[in-house]
């Protein structure tokens, strides 16, 4: 069964990083990765509907236009059941997977753990 992850960041390198990190799972059909380059773009995708089931939204905090905190508020108002995780996605993209700091590596493990334990309900990520 496939599930979706939505990554929101204005930095193009972030999409490349996540495509690389989840390439096997995407190829196997475990995860379907969706990307939005703005908060507005993410809300548009959510309004249109994301298939298969969306299990987590990963968003950068600092973006032009709608920032991550504003996006979080909008999502919680419109789609309260969706789990959202704010993370320094741009910092992760700049360092690359091998050079991630411990905090960022831990967040990636949390994401991987949340997706691995998906049980048909929206996965809940613990606070970072």
The structural domain count equals: 1
Mean pLDDT: 78
Beta-strand percentage range: 15-25%
**What is the CATH C-level name?**
Alpha Beta
- Rg from alpha-carbon coordinates: 13 Å
Element string (H = helix, E = strand): EHHEHEHEHH
Approximate shape: globular
Poorly predicted spans: 96-102, 115-128
Oligomer: single chain
Structural class: alpha/beta
Question: At the third CATH level, what is the topology name?
Answer: Rossmann fold
Distance from N terminus to C terminus (CA atoms, Å) equals: 27 Å
Name the CATH homologous superfamily.
Response regulator
- Sequence of strands across the biggest β-sheet: 2-1-3-4
CATH architecture: 3-Layer(aba) Sandwich
Helix content: 40-55%
What's the quick description here?
With 128 residues, the protein is of the alpha/beta class. The chain contains six helices and four strands; from the N terminus they run E-H-H-E-H-E-H-E-H-H.
3D structure, described in words:
46% of the residues lie in helices and 16% in strands. It is α/β, with parallel strands linked by helices and 128 residues long. It has one domain: Rossmann fold, CATH 3.40.50. The protein starts with a strand and ends in a 12-residue tail after the last helix.
Layout of secondary structure:
Elements: E1 3-8, H1 12-21, H2 23-28, E2 31-36, H3 39-48, E3 54-59, H4 68-78, E4 84-86, H5 89-95, H6 102-116
Parallel strand pairs: 1-2, 1-3, 3-4
